[in-house]
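Input/output pair, single chain:
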Amino acid sequence: MTFNSWFKRASLITATLVLFAGNKAIGQDTIVIRNGDEIRAKVEEVQVTEIKYRKYENLTGPLYSIKKSEIFMVKYENGSKDVFDNQQTETTPSVEKAGTSVSPNVPATIYFYRPPKFIGAANEIIVGTIVPDAVIVDLKNGRWFKTDYTYFGQRELVNGIFSINEKHLNVNFEQGKTYYIRCTIIQGMGMQSKVELVDEATAEKEMASLKEQEKSLVKIK
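Output:
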C-alpha cells in the first residue's frame, strides 16, 4: 500500500481534537497502517523489523507485533512521530533524447519552500511520493529545503499535516532540471496543506526572506 490509500480521513479538526484528548488523558500512541487504518495503542518495543504494542482498549492485555513494512507512521503520546519507509526500491532508468543516453547519475533539483503564516505555524507539512512510497521533507514554517531527486518521469506528490490531502500534485521530473514547489497551509473544513509548482521568478521572490532548512525533520526508519 502507498500514500494514495491513506488520505481518506475525517475532518482534520475532529481528528486533531480526538488525538489530543486521547494523548493527554491516557497516554495513547497511534499506529497508522499503510492501508489507512489506525490502531490506538501503547507502543512497547521498536525492533529492527517490527513494533510490539498493546491495544489501547486493553493496556494490561497481550503484547501484539506488526511488521514495520506495514506501517506508515507512528504518532506518540508526546507529539513526536516516526515515519517508516516500506523498503521498496525502484530502478532509475536512463533517459534517451535524440538517440543519446543521459546518465541516470544527473539528478533533478527540487526546492520546497513555505512562506510564513500564523495559521498552523507550529505544524510541519509532510511531502512525499506515491511511487516510490517515501517521504521527502517535513517542512517547517518560513523555511525552504533543497534536495536532489533521481526518480524521473511522472510522479504524484502527496502532502499533509495529520492526514494526507486528497488533492495531489503531478510533476514530470526530468534529469538536470530544477523545480520549485510552494507549500502552504489553508483553512476550510479544518486545517490542511497544499503544494503547487511555481516558476523560478516567483519562487526566488517568495524565498528571499526565508531561512534554509538543512534537512528533512522526519525520522525515516
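The mean pLDDT is 77. The helical segments are 12-26, 200-207.
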